[in-house]
Amino acid sequence: MNDNCVINNQEPIRDKSTINTTLPTILAYNLRLYMEQRYINYDKPTKKQREYESVVYLRINSNKLVFNKLNYFICIKLSNTNKIQTINPEIMNKTTKLLGGLLITTIATSCGTGGTNQSAQANDPLANSPIVGQYVQVGTDKVMSCDQKLLADTVRIPLSFFAEELEIVKLDNRDEALVGQTGMTISDNYILMHGRQPNPFKLFDRKGNFLTNIGTIGQGPGEYQMVYDAKLDEANNRIYILPWNASQLLVYDSQGKVLDPIPLCLRCPKAKFSVDLPEDKVSVVVLPFKGYPAVAWIQDLKGNRISCIEPGHLEAPQDFSNEVTAGFNLPGTFDVNILCIMPTRVDSLYQYDEDNSRLIPTFTLNFPNTDKIPWHGYGEWPHHFIGDFSEPPIEVAPGAWTNGQTYHYIVDKKTGKGSFFKLYNDYFGNLEIGYPSYAFSNGYYTRNIEPGNLLTDIENALKNQEISDDMRKKLTDLQASIDENDNNYVMIAKLKP
Prior knowledge:
The protein is mostly beta strands.
């Protein structure tokens, strides 16, 4: 590489320090202290009901004594009679003194109505979660280092906490507008449905009206087959498509006209990119296979390299199971994760500092056993780091692997508090959102759904007796308007800043 290429010598973060916050188990004959976890149901601030996050209970022989944060017994379960009895607070006060040496901590949330504490919880779903991460100084950078062992509880968070109002858009039903189960990219006025053989990329307005195809499937000029990334630049009337193993970036305008492609100074087996047309600049982060000269670079629109970063420790084995991911959920931020699946390894989330030609580490997860690192990924939202990891990969056949159960977690950037989490769509009957740590991309929550599946979702949502009358009417009205022969519907919700 030439002089304008720097080596990425920032090693992955390995924080050796640990914080032991595990609740002690105390034994005295048949006396044992337990912690029991329950989901938290954080709804909008106007909703008053809250479920317990967790409770601490004492088991004496087969009797289970449950405490809440007011230091009262809620109930005692008598195994012989299965009765539930309420304990007088005065008795509880005496009993609390007796058990004070045994009860290390009591963790619970209020199930009352209103109050300052409830408002704080509604505004911060991680308010009652433990501190699972802390910033550590690594050279000139501060990196949030999260300890996997400290992740314990599961919080259930509404989509409305992160996103603005949800739109449900029915796509144009003309034959030339039909789409399959593909990804999408959103801008203020456009919906770009990604292509998948045999259908090309298709551009719609935000009301669902079909505008034009973008390119075609094939191997000729302006054509593509397998696509790895795409960008919709409404401000500059440009659409960019990056195929797999590409040597050029395909360019179109919003009318579907094929424009001159942008030559890439290096071939991209898998890559994420951004284009600044007014500044004549393209930024690329690539999956750096062994022997590849760069992990990231900046070039002009003619393919001339301006700066680059050598892979260093980020070099990846030449296995197309590995990925390079970028969320682009923070304006002006190119976040990137070199995701090694075969084999897994310790790594970090980075931000591409284009001005100084650096990959700046921002977040990492410390695994308790670095000999068996699970499949995992990292991401970033405006106020949180998010990620996932799975149980160890399982070889289901010679050379064929699958991941174990997947866990998704969230960490507050400011406080370091974090938990496992589930995300549910409170704009749509409180249905759970799959793979919550991947819910947002390019600043939007999106979902592309076939009409039959949408009807099934509505039926399931209507079974929930706790949804409001307004929500029930909204769902039944939508249900009545859907025909199974319709084109797909898309859900869109903009990420809050």
